[in-house]
Specification:
The protein has 472 residues and is an alpha+beta fold. Helices cover 40% and strands 20% of the residues. Bound molecules: zinc ion.
Length: 472
C-alpha cells in the first residue's frame, strides 16, 4: 500500500514593529524578565487596548507579498483559554474576518501552495521551567504576530521545507519580521494526515505544535507520517489530537485532545473598533514593497545570465544579494562578480548568520573596482584572486594592494619570449603533450606563471604555447 502525506502549516511570524500590538512597550527580544511590560499587556483590569497601526501595515505587506486579497474591513476577536502564559485568559486574535485571504506561494516545481488566511494576533508570555518551578516572563506577551494558515496542499516533507524557506525569505525581504527561528520569531504548527495514494478524501489529522526549527519540523513530520501509517495498517484509528515534538527522543507525543473552534468561545473584541483599510492604503503599501526574492532570482538568471544555483545562493541572503548588485554595477561579466562572492568571500563567512548579516570586510565598491580591472584586462584572474585575499585581510582597496607596476601586466612580445623559453626548458612536458596528454600543458603554464610572478594572462599564454609547439 502506498500512503500519501497531506499537510498544512500554520506559521506564526513575530512582526518587527518597534512597539507591541496594543501598548507602547518595546518588542525587543530578551531583556530582564517582566521589564517590557505595562498594565495593558499584562491585562490588568480597567486597561484598554489600542491597535498599533504599524501592525496593520506589516500584515498587509505580508499579505500582498504572498498574493493575498486584503480585506477592507476586518475585526478583532477574543479567543478564550485559560493558561498562565495569558494573563487576561483570552488572546486578542481574528476569527471569521481575517485581514488577508486567499493567497499562495509558488514552489520551484511550479506548484502553488495556497494560503487560506493571514490574521493578526498578540503573542503570549513565556513559561520557564526551572528547578521544579515554573516562572512566567511576560516580555513577549502582546508582541504582534501574524498567523499564516496554508491549505492542506503539502504532499511531502520536501515541499513543507521549501514552503517554510520561501515564506521566511519573503518575510525577510519585505522587512515585516527578522524571522529568527532560534529566537522564536517564526514558529510552525503542522497539521498532518495520511491517505491512500490517489484518494480524494482527507484522513483524520493531528496537529504538531510550536516548532521553531526547519530541521525539527522535517523530523517531526517524518515520525508522525510513519506513526499514522503504522496505526492504520495495524487496524487502528487516528485520534484527532494535539501533539508535541520531543527532539531528544525524535518522536511526537500526545499533548491533549484537539480543541474545536467552539472550545475557544470566540466573540468580537468589544474594546476595539472595526478595522478598516482603504484601497489607497493598500496601494501605498504595495508601492513600498521591495523586489521579492522570486523576481530577483529570475532577474539574476535572465538579465545577469547567472547559473540558477549561483543566483539562488545570492538571493538566499538579502544583504548579500544587495551587495552583489552594488559590486556588479557597470560590470559586463556578472558571473565573475558572483564567483568572487560565492568563492573566496563566502569561504570567510563561516556561519549562516555571518552570511545573513553580510559581514564582508570590504565595501561592494572595492569589489567592483577589482572586477572592472579584470574586465579591462589590467590584471588577470589569478592576480585578482590574490589581491582579493589581501583586500579581505586588510580591508584596503585594490590600488593599495597591487602596485601600478604589477598592474601594467606583461606586454605580448615579452610574454612570447617567456613562453618560448618555457617550451624549450620543459621538453618532457612537451613530449607528453604531443603524445596526447593535454594535462601536461599545465606544467608549462605553471612555469610561465612562476617566471612572471602570476602576472601572465593564462589564457593568452596557453594559446602562445600551443602555437609554439605546433610550429616547431
Ligand atoms: Zn505593555
Amino acid at each position: 500500500m502506498t500512503w500519501e502525506l497531506v499537510a498544512g502549516l500554520e506559521t506564526h511570524v513575530e512582526l518587527s514593529t518597534k512597539t507591541k500590538i496594543f501598548c507602547r512597550c518595546t518588542t525587543q527580544f530578551g531583556g530582564e524578565p517582566n521589564t517590557h511590560c505595562c498594565p495593558v499587556c499584562i491585562g490588568l483590569p480597567g486597561t484598554l487596548p489600542k491597535l498599533n497601526r504599524a501592525v496593520v501595515e506589516y500584515a498587509v505587506k505580508a499579505g500582498l507579498a504572498t498574493n493575498c486579497k486584503i480585506s477592507n474591513i476586518s475585526k478583532m476577536d477574543r479567543k478564550n483559554y485559560v493558561y498562565p502564559d495569558l494573563p487576561k485568559a483570552y488572546q486578542i486574535s481574528q476569527y471569521d474576518k481575517p485581514i488577508c485571504r486567499h493567497g499562495f506561494i509558488t514552489l520551484s516545481s511550479g506548484k502553488n501552495i495556497n494560503i487560506e488566511r493571514i490574521h493578526i494576533e498578540e503573542d503570549a508570555g513565556k513559561l520557564i521551567h526551572e528547578r521544579g518551578n515554573t516562572f512566567i516572563d511576560y516580555n513577549r506577551g502582546g508582541v504582534p504576530l501574524i498567523e499564516i494558515v496554508s491549505e492542506p496542499d503539502l504532499r511531502s516533507i520536501d515541499e513543507a521545507v521549501e514552503y517554510i524557506d520561501k515564506l521566511r525569505l519573503i518575510m525577510k525581504y519585505t522587512g515585516v519580521s527578522d524571522v529568527k527561528m532560534q529566537e522564536g520569531s517564526l514558529r510552525c504548527d503542522v497539521n498532518i494526515s495520511v491517505r491512500k495514494k490517489g484518494s480524494k478524501s482527507l484522513g483524520t489529522r493531528t496537529e504538531i505544535k510550536n516548532m521553531n526549527s526547519v530541521n525539527f519540523i522535517a523530523k517531526a513530520m517524518e515520525y508522525e507520517f510513519n506513526r499514522q501509517i503504522d496505526i492504520i495498517e495495524s487496524g487502528g484509528e487516528i485520534e484527532q489530537e494535539t501533539r508535541r515534538y520531543n527532539s531528544d527522543l525524535n518522536i511526537t507525543e500526545s499533548m491533549r485532545g484537539k480543541e474545536d473552534a467552539t472550545d475557544y468561545r470566540y466573540f468580537r473584541e468589544p474594546d476595539l473598533v472595526t478595522l478598516t483599510i482603504s484601497e489607497d492604503e493598500i496601494n501605498k503599501y504595495k508601492s513600498e514593497l521591495p523586489e521579492l526574492p522570486d523576481v530577483k532570482l529570475q532577474r539574476f538568471i535572465n538579465e545577469f545570465e547567472l547559473p540558477e544555483a549561483d543566483a539562488q545562493l545570492l538571493v538566499k541572503y538579502k544583504r548579500v544579494a544587495e551587495y552583489f548588485e552594488e559590486a556588479a554595477k557597470d560590470v559586463k561579466n556578472k558571473k565573475l562578480t558572483a564567483n568572487f562572492i560565492l568563492g573566496p568571500i563566502f569561504r570567510r563567512l563561516d556561519t549562516e548568520s555571518e552570511k545573513e548579516e553580510c559581514r564582508i570586510s570590504i565595501s561592494p565598491e572595492y569589489l567592483n573596482e577589482l572586477v572592472i580591472l579584470v574586465e579591462n584586462k589590467k590584471i588577470n584572474f589569478n592576480m585578482a584572486r590574490t589581491a582579493l585575499g589581501q583586500m579581505l585581510d586588510t580591508g584596503k582597496p585594490v590600488m593599495e594592494v597591487i602596485s601600478e607596476n604589477e598592474m601594467a601586466g606583461i606586454d605580448e612580445d615579452d610574454l612570447r619570449k617567456i613562453c618560448k623559453n618555457a617550451v624549450e626548458t620543459n621538453e618532457n612536458a612537451v613530449k607528453q603533450y604531443l603524445s596526447g596528454k593535454e594535462k601536461a600543458l599545465a606544467a608549462i603554464i605553471g612555469f610561465i606563471m612562476k617566471e612572471t610572478k602570476g602576472k601572465a594572462d593564462a589564457a593568452l599564454a596557453t594559446e602562445m604555447v600551443k602555437q609554439l609547439i605546433a610550429n616547431r
